Amino acid sequence: EFHMKTYLVTGAAGFIGANYLKYILKKYDGKEDIKVIVVDALTYAGNLGTIREELKNSKVKFEKVDIRDRKETERIFSENEVDYVVNFAAESHVDRSIENPQIFLETNILGTQNLLENAKKAWTVSKGENGYPVYRDGVKYLQVSTDEVYGSLSKDYEKAIELVIEDEKVKNVVKDRTNLKTYGDKFFTEKTPLDPRSPYSASKAGADHIVLAYGETYKMPITITRCSNNYGPYHFPEKLIPLMIKNVLEGKKLPVYGKGDNVRDWLYVEDHCKGIDLVLREGKEGEIYNIGGFNEEQNINIVKLVIDILKEEITNNDEYKRVLKTNLDNINYNLITYVQDRLGHDMRYAIDPSKIARDLGWYPETDFETGIRKTVKWYLENQEWVNEVISGDYQKYYEEMYGGK
Ligand code: NAD
Ligand code: TYD
Predict the structure, then answer these.
(1) How many Å apart are CA 11 and CA 17, to the nearest integer?
(2) What is the Cα–Cα distance from 278 to 263, expressed in whole angstroms?
């Protein structure tokens, strides 16, 4: 029997959530009937303009609601027969968590618990003999988490060494790629003990624990995904890659923390979205899945690469020259400036995605060279978006569109 699926996607006016909304609408278009309820409080990081086209789709409904709001969350669950909850809503920036930790605990931990509690109530159909709730068929709660909950790995090599992957199924993650490399001997697996070190990662770890607790205590159908650093379109220009692009175009200095030798593991955002939907549909209840594409790089090399690609693209395309607010000659490594290190700066993140590769057949579609060029070009072609998200114009847009409703 055919059954329409209703997604409740929180934080879909932000970077990854918006990409996920676009991804599922494309993926199921004409193939399967889905409905999506977007729940977003529209903080500084959320922008309705990012999903303007999607909001015109009759399958999508928008609710400007804070995930901490118990009454409003309850109303949404009572008005809709929600099958899937995918929770992206969070405070997500480590630097902001160092300045103001409290909101991270409130949104990331208490907000998550509020969603879980309301999903549990709405999904419970009866009580089983052993006292556990019995849930409606086919429902699932997915928590979007991060590799940062595992803490920081050591960087064992100043210069990256060759990465060798033995398992045939895991090799699929890096198929057609050469120059595989790593900066260390250890990777995060799903069994790595949690060891968060920033207020952001501590709040995400707290959220993961409460999700697992609902899974054990109430046998709720939950899963958790833990992904490495994402990059791609609609990334708010306070994070490393979009900030560097923005500053280069304005001829501003590029602030590199510490020595620039910290290592992050970069994944194209759409590949993360593909992994999330795969886990939602095919992942095992109660399980955790790491998502990452074996793509470690030091920050300084990322910054240099962004400079190189920008310079090349602008040199070769007159359209892009109009975007530039400085002289083309000013685009060079002299823009780089080393600034005081982030407090408690995690040295290295590196995901071992063996489980999702073996059990669910996940692999990324976009390698880093392709993805980073695509991303740089997207920013060159979408400066209007950048200007709007930083000027707060989208908040005004919201008032105009939804004011009084
Ligand atoms: P983001 O900051 O770009 O977007 C967050 C969204 O959540 C925004 O639309 C914001 O308005 C909304 N939001 C914030 N507080 C809210 C609240 N109280 N109620 C309702 N909505 C609220 O974040 P992102 O980079 O898209 O990250 C999304 C999720 O993925 C987060 O949970 C983050 O921890 C996780 N994650 C991010 C990365 C990454 O590299 N960016 C990697 C792994 C995991
Ligand atoms: P960020 O994009 O904030 O992601 P996260 O801290 O969650 O990994 O930062 C990525 C890396 O880049 C991190 O090691 C900090 C560094 N960084 C800079 O060197 N300069 C900057 O201006 C920013 C925002 C980050």
Answers:
(1) 6
(2) 27
Digit-coded pLDDT (tens) for 69-103? 999 999 999 999 999 999 999 999 999 999 999 99
Ligand minimally distant from the alpha carbon of residue 272: 1
Q: How far is the CA of 321 from the centre of ligand 2 (A)?
A: 27
Distance 332 CA to ligand 1 centre (A): 32
C-alpha 172/C-alpha 198 separation (Å) is 33
Which of 163-170's residues contact partners 24+ apart within 8 Å by CB, and which partners? 163/294, 165/294, 167/354, 167/358, 169/354, 169/357, 169/358, 169/361, 170/353, 170/354, 170/357, 170/358
List, for residues 188-211, the tens digit of each pLDDT value: 999 999 999 999 999 999 999 999
Q: How far apart are CA 301 and CA 260, in angstroms?
A: 8
The answer to whether 313 touches 376, Cβ cutoff 8 Å, is yes
pTM > 0.85: yes or no: yes
Nearest to 89 by CA among 51, 142, 35, 41: 41
42 touches ligand 1 (CB under 6 Å): yes
- Tokens for 225, please give them: 């995904």
Residue 79 parent element (H or E): helix 70-79
